[in-house]
Amino acid sequence: MRMIDGNIFEEMRMTIPEHRKAMVRMNQAAKRMEKPQLAQDCLEEMSLTLAAAIQDCTVVTIKRYHALGSVEIELVPHKIDPYLRVLKGVTSTDESISIPLTEILDVQV
C-alpha cells in the first residue's frame, strides 16, 4: 500500500540489507519454473523434426528449459551426439552452440 492509501507505517518501515537479500532470493525462488515431463509421442515428434532439419539444413526454433523461464533459440542443427546427449548447431550469428537434449522442450520449423 502507498502512504496516500492511509498506510503510513508501511512507508516508514526500514529493511536492513540482509533482509532485502533474503526477500530477493525468496522472490526468485517463487518465480522458478519446474521442468515439465514430456510425453513419449512429443519426444518422438521432436526427434523427427530435428532429423529432418539436420538432413535439409533448415532453421529451427528450439524452446529450451531454464529455471526462470523457457528460452527460444533459432539455429541450424548439424548433429546430435548420442554419447554426450547434446544437439550441436549454429545460430544466426554464426555462433556454435551445444544444447543438452534433456533441456529441449519444443522444436518448431
Automatic annotation (TrEMBL):
It comes from the Bacteria. It holds the Pfam family YolD. This is YolD-like family protein. It comes from Fodinisporobacter ferrooxydans.
